[in-house]
Structures are given as structure tokens and as C-alpha cells.
Amino acid sequence: MADKKEYGDGFLYADDFVRDGKWCQFALTIKGIVPPNTIKAANKQMVDKVCLQFEEASKILAVNTTNERLLKMACGSAKSDNWVGKKVTFYPVSVDAFGQTNVPALRVRLPKEVPMPFSARTQLGRDLTGKSLQVQTAGSDAAT
Description:
about 15% helix; 3 helices; disordered C terminus; globular; alpha+beta; two-stranded antiparallel ribbon; 6-stranded antiparallel β-sheet
């Protein structure tokens, strides 16, 4: 999970998954894989994560550790090069991380036929899909 100030507007964030005031999930087709330390973020630092390009979106996604594990399961391969052409559903969640609570993040939704390992369940966060967006005020927790 990254701050927009860190990566910049060219990256996908949870708030990109809001339509008509509600959190939504989207199925995106992976068009390309960008290896770590290939792209510079808005803060002029190299992005140290695998990044995904999509057919349906102009923005890219920096893949965190949790989503990388989920992508391996959803795409049926540990090799990211094999993810190209796969359609993957991403959905918004609320997580507690880095000393903050209710932080919006994105997760990969596994297909029903792929069992969810117990160890991964604790890192999924709280699904926000279909819930109304609550405006965050200064000093309050992020939208839930």
C-alpha cells in the first residue's frame, strides 16, 4: 500500500475503485509486467515492486507482498511473466497497517475454485465492495 504522494497519479489506488459514491470491484486483464526497480515514482525513487499494466486502465499497479501471493494463486503461476493475458478481479478493502487503522487498499479476489490459504485470510482486510464512501476529514481514520 503506497501513498499517492510517494508513487504519484499514474498508479492505481483503492480510491480509483469508487463509482457513484460506492466502492466497486473491477476485473482487469494484465497486459504487461514491469520488473522492480524499473519505474521511477513521483518521489523520484525507483519502485521496488513488480508493477502491472492493464488492458482496461491507463494507470499501473505496484504489487504489494499480499497481492503478489494472491496473484500467484489466481493466475496459477509463481512466475509473473505467466500472468500476462490473465483477467484478475481487484477489490477495495480496509486494512490496519503501518500504525494506521481503516486504510483503503486493493486486494486480488481469488476465483471461487482457488482455495484461500488460512495464512492469507488474516491479511485480506475488510471488503468494502458495495459500501458507500465516507468522506475522510482531517485527523480521522480513512473511509470504511
